[in-house]
Structure formats: C-alpha cells, structure tokens
Amino acid sequence: MASVFRKLISREFGENIYYKYFYVCQRSLQEKFFDSDEIYQDIYRRVERRDKGDIKNMQTRLNESLVIAVRIIKTYIIFVVYVLAAVLYLVTLGLHPIVTAAGIILISLILLQKTYEYIINKYCYIDAQIVLIYKNVLDKLLLPEHKEPR
Fold it and tell me: Are the CB atoms for 24 and 38 separated by under 8 Å?
C-alpha cells in the first residue's frame, strides 16, 4: 500500500519518474539542504506542453488527493474509538469464547490495516515535498498572465 501522494505522482508521471523524484528528494534531505529546483524544472517541462483543460484536471486530481489524505489522518482516531467500542461490545455479548476471539482477531486485523494506512499517509514527507512542488508548478501554469500597463 502506498501513500495517496505517491499514487497520484505515479499516475500522473509514471512509476519510474516517481522513483526519480523520490531519490532526488531523499538525497537532498540527506545533505540537509533541500533543493527543489531539479524536480520543479522537470515537472514544469512535462506539464507545460499540456493544454489548460488537462492542467485543470491535474489540479482537480491533486486537490482530491489532498482531501483524501487529510480525511485518512483526521478520521483515524474516530476509527480507533469505534474499534474499541466494537471489541467491548463483543466481550459483553457473552458469546462463545471462540466466536468472541475470532471477532476480536478480525477487528484487530482491520485496525492493523487502517493503522498502516494512517502511518503511510501521515509520515510521507518526501511524497509531500514532491506534491508541493507539483502544486507550485500547476499554480504557476494556471495563473493568468498579467499584462504590463503602458
């Protein structure tokens, strides 16, 4: 399972390009100086050839990905509370211990999957850096050109 941002960049530019950007960011972060210019220029060259409609669609997909990532992060605590309530409910039902244990194991597996999804999306710093650069490129390309007054 990949982060929402990784999926977005991979869909827009391909898996190989994502890994290229990832390694550039990783190298920059290891050097303790993040230089986004290389990624910015590459994304700009890839996107500038497209028409405004395509760029607006790209921006819409970016905004949807941002909403999904925020939703995953914000709803995790609520999900944990529901899981705890479900486990407590199963225990208080007085079912056969094997049925109760099976239910708790199933709920725990679902919680484990949601926790993994939460961690991947909450702590994907490199993916977030790439998406911010991507957002800057799209914003620059969609800004109306200002004409200088005479």
Answer: yes
Q: Are 117 and 1 a contacting pair, CB within 8 Å?
A: yes
CA 69 vs CA 49, 94, 107, 121: distances in Å: 28, 38, 23, 6
Q: Beta strands of the chain (E only): which ranges?
A: none
Alpha-carbon distance of 76 to 101, in angstroms, equals 23
Q: Which two tokens stand for residue 29?
A: 């972060």
User: Cα separation of 121 and 133, whole Å?
Assistant: 18
pTM of the full structure: 0.81
CA 28 to CA 7: how far, in whole Å? Answer: 22
| Tens of pLDDT, residues 88-146 | 999 999 889 999 999 999 999 999 999 999 999 988 888 999 999 999 999 999 887 53
